[in-house]
What we know:
The N and C termini lie far apart (43 Å). The chain has 12 helices and 2 strands, in the order E-H-H-H-H-H-H-H-H-H-H-E-H-H. A two-stranded parallel ribbon has the order 1-2. By secondary structure, it is mostly helical.
Amino acid sequence: MRVVVRTPSSRGHLSRRLLLTGIMVIASTLRAPITGVAPVLGMIRETTRINAAQAGILTTLPLVAFAAISPFAAMLARKYGMERSLFGALLLITAGVGLRSVGPVWGLFLGTAILGAGIAVANVLLPSLLKRDFSTRITGLTGAYAFASGLVSAVASAAVIPVAHLPGSSWRLALASVSIFPLVALVAWLPQLWLHSAPTQDVVIGPHGGPIWQSPLAWQVTAFLGLTSLVYYVVVSWIPTILVAAGYPAATAGSLQGLSQLAVAVPGLMLGPAVGV
């Protein structure tokens, strides 16, 4: 395969449009594989006989993967380039969704961990890619890809119960249907494997000239964003179960979970351009 190496500034108009499309499609895969589990968690427990503690582990595994894998994402980008690293992340997400949907109980947990690892890499590299190639539009585009992520996860949350209740269907098929998003993203990202930037050996430098992990500001931002993500994923993971326990139908609980995700995504889309002005 002949690879053409280009710098960000040398990308043509069509190449930049393909890149931006690929980024938005990848963004659609970052939450749906996780948020789609919560509405069918009761069905999973009923058929697999896992207890409440194991169900808690299942919903926590992606967060553990985020913490364990995210620090290595920059290293992967430096060695292989952002584009190839993101393609590998999409392969992990697709494989993880497939394994948790068709395998035994251990596959349910292992597949969840694998897709969490893929999402962790993409979570780290996508903002960096936007900053590198769209530095003058970073705020608005960040809001756009956050909205795309929230919109697709909302659709997945609302649709997973109806899909699971189709004739001949099950929660496994409903979760497997989420694989359409990373599969489409893989196809959309293929052009970037031929037109990609060279791997970089740059080292992240903190605001005072030292390594980034020696920066107090970096740790403050990390703590803030970590706690924000913790609250978000706890709510997303358990709100359908809480609503079902309160007497709501499972389909309604899934739809309300999806609505809550839209409520998070829409302000980002609206405020992004305003902040960037």
